[in-house]
Design brief:
The protein is of the alpha+beta class. The protein is built from four helices and five strands; from the N terminus they run βββββαααα. The protein has a three-stranded antiparallel beta sheet with strand order 3-4-5, with helices on one face. The protein has a two-stranded antiparallel ribbon with strand order 1-2. A hairpin with a 2-residue loop joins β1 and β2. It is globular, with a radius of gyration of 15 Å.
């Protein structure tokens, strides 16, 4: 999208490499606000609260959430916890509709496994 004549993405990695920024979709078109996501939990909250909307942006936010989790802790247990955080609410109920949750689960659980097998032990 263009903001004041400048092309801007809906979500992007910040130059620090440790955080992600996303346009708050809830406030458009009246207000342009950028939210900073710094953890897997904040990415999950962005999805849950509809700060990000639409399947491509939800999937991208989830992928960034996993990447942020892996930067903090690269263990298999942390990867499993990140996937569960992004797919389910704390109460254990899915916060995405059935088909979106299934796709996200496939991307997170199977897609990341493929990436690790292709690239060795690290994502970064």
């Amino acid at each position: 999208m263009k903001v004041e004549g400048k092309h801007i993405r809906s979500i992007w990695l910040e130059p620090d490499g440790w955080s992600v920024s996303a346009i708050d979709q809830r406030l458009l078109p009246h207000d342009f606000v950028v939210a900073r996501l710094t953890s897997c939990d904040s990415a999950a909250d962005a999805i849950r609260s509809m700060l990000v909307r639409g399947a491509p942006l939800i999937g991208t936010t989830a992928a960034y959430g996993v990447a942020l989790a892996m930067r903090a802790d690269g263990s298999d247990a942390a990867l499993d916890a990140a996937c569960k955080t992004l797919i389910q609410c704390p109460e254990g109920q899915r916060f995405l509709s059935g088909s979106k949750a299934m796709v996200l689960e496939e991307v997170l659980c199977r897609g990341l496994d493929w990436v690790v097998r292709q690239n060795g032990s690290g994502l970064f």
